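Section 3.1 - Work completed
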Amino acid sequence: MDISACIKKTSQVKSYLDRDVKHRDVAKLLDAARFAPSSGNIQNWRFLIVRNKETKEKIARACLDQLWIQEAPVLIIVCSNNSNIKTMYPKKWKKYSRENCAAAVQNIILQAASLGLSSCWIRSFNALRLKNILKIPDDVSVEAIITIGYSNERPKETRHKIEELTFFETYGNRRRDVSIFPLAKHLAKFKK
């Protein structure tokens, strides 16, 4: 699947089939994550794979009682090992930690879509509870949770038109070179 199709195929899925995800597919997700860009090439991300039913229930409760989370066959907990990043970026380490891990999350989501898997990126959780449940050390922060599995729904996400999101030269300036709009028309040329 080409990258454009993969990007357009991603959506936030909150209902999963009772179908296991192969270990080799999880390995492909993690391999994609490790190739994400990171500030200073520090690669601070760390990944916890959770398949255990009881643990998934505890995690779902720590995610502000989003109980649908436990339906997913696999949870990937994305963490940041902060020891090196704090040293390299003492003032901006939290920001860079999140940005680096977000890039890894995006790679996981794209790779999942390319494998026919569905996912959801979760940021609402009680980090302290998660750290206790998963025995995460003090200098490691929880940055995200990704549910992985086979969708039990047909998500219908709407997207804004690119013309609504784009400005020219200065923020808010909609005056444009009319020869490039509508952008959808020009993008269609590249698909051929």
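Second construct:
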Amino acid sequence: MTTTYTPAPPIWCAGCGHFGAQAAISGALRELDIPAHETMVLAGIGCSGTVQNNLGTYGYHALHGRVLPTATGVHLANPDLTVIAAGGDGDGYAIGMGHLVHTFRRNPSFAYIVMNNGVYGLTKGQGSPTFQPDGAALEFDAASLALSIPTTTFIARGFARWTDQLNRLTVAALEHARERRGFAFLEVLSPCVTYNDTYPAWEATLHDLDASDAHDPTDRTAAFGTVAALATEGRMAVGMIYRNGASPADDPMRPVAAKVGREANASAFAKILDRYRS
């Protein structure tokens, strides 16, 4: 791999939950032995949008709210890459909401890690779609949205402070995507210590599904009921919320990939690359 940049130290505030999310990503890449030159990290706009600068992989800084269609294009162009989309709750649940719904529907095989802190931290703390004044359970729950769309195959939520579980979930998300099982959605509760320090409030409201023998993550209907029931109590589910238990199948977007992928467009891609070499 040609060295094109030196990974930068994070610019986040000390104590930011994003450090935990980034550590989980880098740890998962090491554990799964995924080379940097076979990894593409795309990020949205916001504090989380700098994560691709810190990891040493291929990276791309997408337009605000557009990280998912961009990541879909990368996946279609080169399905052999491990593609990780990363972003914040403002990027993904506000301006990017339409793309999130349709990515759930299309179910492309890449991972999406949302660092949710309830605020627009980069623009100094305005409330995001998930902001709660008392720092309690999320008013908008992306996991419930994902469960309501029949084609979703991987829905999980971690907490930046619960590092062991977050590391396991991140590994599982990358494995799911790499096995071509579909879209791996992982929300990371990632408190902003400067504008919305929800560490104590969130820890007090979390319910760990992974510690419950009664929870079956392959049962979508039961998972939906559990998440909804917890919400009525002002609590949030964390852990593996839902994962399709079926055997790996062909990539659900294979028909599209056949039209836009490398084999169908090799000559066109070569001409584009030649322009950069000249």
